[in-house]
UniProtKB/TrEMBL annotation:
<dbReference type="Pfam" id="PF00149">
    <property type="entry name" value="Metallophos"/>
</dbReference>
<keyword id="KW-0378">Hydrolase</keyword>
<keyword id="KW-0732">Signal</keyword>
<dbReference type="InterPro" id="IPR051558">
    <property type="entry name" value="Metallophosphoesterase_PAP"/>
</dbReference>
<protein>
    <submittedName>
        <fullName>13942_t:CDS:1</fullName>
    </submittedName>
</protein>
<dbReference type="InterPro" id="IPR004843">
    <property type="entry name" value="Calcineurin-like_PHP"/>
</dbReference>
<dbReference type="GO" id="GO:0016787">
    <property type="term" value="F:hydrolase activity"/>
</dbReference>
<dbReference type="InterPro" id="IPR029052">
    <property type="entry name" value="Metallo-depent_PP-like"/>
</dbReference>
<feature type="domain" description="Calcineurin-like phosphoesterase">
    <location>
        <begin position="60"/>
        <end position="278"/>
    </location>
</feature>
C-alpha cells in the first residue's frame, strides 16, 4: 500500500537483558519484550516487534525446509551446504539484513538438541551467522518439541527469532522511513484436519495440548490475522509469512482458502511460504492481486503445486532473494538455484507496492 508512513525509528539493536525478556533500543524509543507469565506458544504475541534500519535498501533472503543435513540431490534429501554457501555469498554481496525462515527446520527434542549446532549454527556461517532469522514453524517442527523452538529464542539465542507461533513485526528503513509490516503465522492449524491425524508423530497431541485443535481456536486466529492486517494498513508494504503454500491447488486444504481470501481482501503485497520442496511463484492477477512465493528447497526436493505461473523442476535446491529500495514503489526478487556450488539466478521479477488489480 503506497501511502505515507508514521513510524520514526533510526537505529536498531537487540539483546537479552534477562532469561525471558528482549530489549529493543532505538534512538527515540526503548521497548522491552517479555515472555508473559501465562504465555503459551500458540497465543499471538501481544506487542509489535519494531525494527529500524539506516540503509535505504531492505534486503532479505527467504528460505524454508532446510534442516535435512544430508548429501546428494533427489526427492528425499539434498545438500544443505550448497544452499548455505550460496546464501552467504548473496548476503555478503547485497548486505542482507535478515533471513525470513518459512519453517520446517526438521524439529528438535529440546533447546539442547545437537541439531541446533549441526543443522543451523555449523551450516549457516559468515554473514548468515550475524543476522536474525525471522521464523515460523512448519509441520515437521510440530512433529517434535515445538515448544523448544520458542524456548530457544527466549532463553538461548534470539537470532532464531520465534517468540510465538503468531507475531507481528515492522521494519522501518531509509531516509523516507518506509514501513514494512510482517504478519508471521502458523499455518499447520489451518492446513490439517485434526480428526484425521494419527499418533505417528506429535502433531496431533501438540495441537490438542495447545488448544488449537478446535474450530473456535482456528476462528480466533483468523480474527487475529484480520485485525492485524487492518491495523497495519498504514504500511507501504504488507507481507505475510507462513509455512504451507498458497499456490494453485495447494491452497485448497481446509482453512487455507479463508487465509487467501483475507490476504486478497486486504491487498497484501506478498505471501512467503514453503512446505513443498521447490522454488515457485504465482504472480498477481485480476482474480488474486497477491504475489505468492514458495521457497521450500533449502535442503530437500519434491514436486510442486499445480497452477503455478513459474517453478523449477524437482531436484532443484535454492532460495529466494528480495530487495526493496526506500524511495521506490517496486520490490525486486530473484530465485537462486543452489543445487551445486555454482549457484545461479533462474528467475527474476518485480512487484509494485500498489497491486495492479483491485476488486
Amino acid at each position: 500500500m503506497c501511502i505515507a508512513t508514521l513510524s520514526i525509528l533510526y537505529s536498531f539493536s537487540i539483546f537479552k537483558n534477562s532469561k525471558n525478556s528482549l530489549k529493543t533500543n532505538t534512538t527515540n524509543t526503548t521497548s522491552t519484550y517479555t515472555q508473559e507469565l501465562n504465555f503459551t506458544i500458540a497465543s499471538p504475541y501481544p506487542k509489535v516487534f519494531e525494527e529500524a534500519y539506516v540503509d535505504s535498501t531492505l534486503d532479505f533472503i527467504v528460505l524454508g525446509d532446510w534442516g535435512f543435513n544430508a548429501n546428494g540431490t533427489g526427492r528425499k534429501h539434498g545438500d544443505q551446504v550448497h544452499v548455505a554457501f550460496a546464501m552467504d555469498n548473496w548476503a555478503k554481496k547485497y548486505n542482507t539484513s535478515f533471513i525470513v525462515n518459512v519453517g520446517d527446520h526438521q524439529g528438535v527434542k529440546s533447546i539442547d538438541d545437537p541439531k541446533w549446532k549441526k543443522n543451523w549454527l555449523d551450516v549457516y556461517k559468515g554473514r548468515l551467522s550475524e543476522i536474525p532469522w525471522y521464523s515460523v514453524a512448519g509441520n515437521h517442527d510440530w512433529y517434535n518439541n515445538i515448544t523448544a523452538q520458542v524456548d530457544y529464542y527466549w532463553s538461548r539465542n534470539n537470532r532464531f527469532f520465534l517468540p510465538s507461533l503468531f507475531y507481528v513485526r515492522t521494519s522501518v528503513f531509509g531516509p523516507e522511513k518506509t514501513k514494512v509490516a510482517w504478519i508471521h503465522i502458523d499455518t499447520s492449524i489451518f492446513y490439517y484436519e485434526y480428526e484425521t491425524l494419527t499418533k505417528k508423530n506429535l502433531l496431533k497431541s501438540n495441537l490438542h495440548n495447545f488448544g488449537v485443535h478446535t474450530s473456535e481456536a482456528v476462528e480466533d486466529r483468523l480474527n487475529w490475522i484480520e485485525e492485524n492486517l487492518a491495523f497495519q494498513g498504514d504500511a507501504k508494504w504488507i507481507f505475510v509469512v507462513g509455512h504451507h503454500p498458497l499456490i494453485g491447488d495447494c491452497a485448497k486444504n481446509r482453512y487455507m482458502p479463508r487465509l487467501l481470501s483475507l490476504f486478497e481482501h486486504y491487498r497484501i503485497n506478498a505471501y512467503f511460504g514453503g512446505h513443498t520442496h521447490v522454488l515457485e511463484y504465482q504472480h498477481p492477477k485480476p482474480s488474486s492481486p497477491v504475489a505468492i512465493f514458495t521457497s521450500g528447497a533449502g535442503s530437500r526436493s519434491s514436486g510442486g503445486c499445480s497452477g503455478k505461473d513459474w517453478g523449477m523442476p524437482e531436484g532443484t535446491l535454492g532460495f529466494l532473494h528480495v530487495k526493496i529500495t526506500s524511495n521506490s514503489d517496486e520490490m525486486s526478487f530473484e530465485f537462486v538455484d543452489a543445487t551445486t556450488y555454482k549457484a545461479k539466478v533462474v528467475y527474476q521479477g518485480k512487484i509494485n507496492c500498489t497491486p495492479i488489480y483491485y476488486f
